[in-house]
Amino acid sequence: MPQGGIDEGESPVQAARRELMEEVGTDKAIVIAELEDWLSYDLPPELAGTVWRGRYRGQRQKWFAMAFTGTESDIDLNVHHEPEFDAFKWASFQDLPGMIVAFKKPVYEKVAAAFAPLAADART
């Protein structure tokens, strides 16, 4: 689930597409849904002064659901000069909250609950 900032002049959906390319190495996806609300989390105190060079205390995020339109060979985690991930795997929405650090879990629970029906619709 790629995440990142929005560059100057970028819309949230443009940023989501750019982050997908930078972090996962593919542009083979279409946006199928957008959460209406922005979601936020705060860093725990022990990280607040060190993560992001201490400039930010958390993140406010706009979430999009995308349908992958490619094949696994279209994913290249090494496309960016400093890869953020060394592996990927497909997971169900219900499993996502258990795969993230505790301080981000409430955000992932909301995202999973909102987008899970889309995955169920895709299977029918």
Architecture blueprint of SSEs:
Layout: H1 12-24, E1 29-34, E2 39-42, H2 45-48, E3 58-61, E4 64-68, H3 105-123
Antiparallel strand pairs: 1-4, 2-3
Care to describe what's here?
This protein is of the alpha+beta class and 124 residues long. It has a domain of 80 residues: Nucleoside Triphosphate Pyrophosphohydrolase (Alpha-Beta Complex), CATH 3.90.79. The protein has 3 helices and 4 strands, in the order αββαββα. A two-stranded antiparallel sheet has the order 1-4. The longest helix is centred in the last third of the chain and has 19 residues. The protein is globular and about 40 Å long. The chain starts with 11 loop residues before the first helix and ends with a helix. The model has no long low-confidence stretch (mean pLDDT 90).
Q: What name goes with the CATH superfamily of the domain at 12-91?
A: Nucleoside Triphosphate Pyrophosphohydrolase
CATH topology of the domain at 12-91: Nucleoside Triphosphate Pyrophosphohydrolase
**Spatial order of strands in the largest sheet:** 1-4
N-to-C SSE string, H for helix and E for strand: HEEHEEH
Shape: globular
Contiguous helical run count: 3
**By helix and strand content, what is the structural category?**
alpha+beta
pLDDT averaged residue by residue: 90
Reading off the top of the CATH hierarchy, the class of the domain at 12-91 is best stated as: Alpha Beta
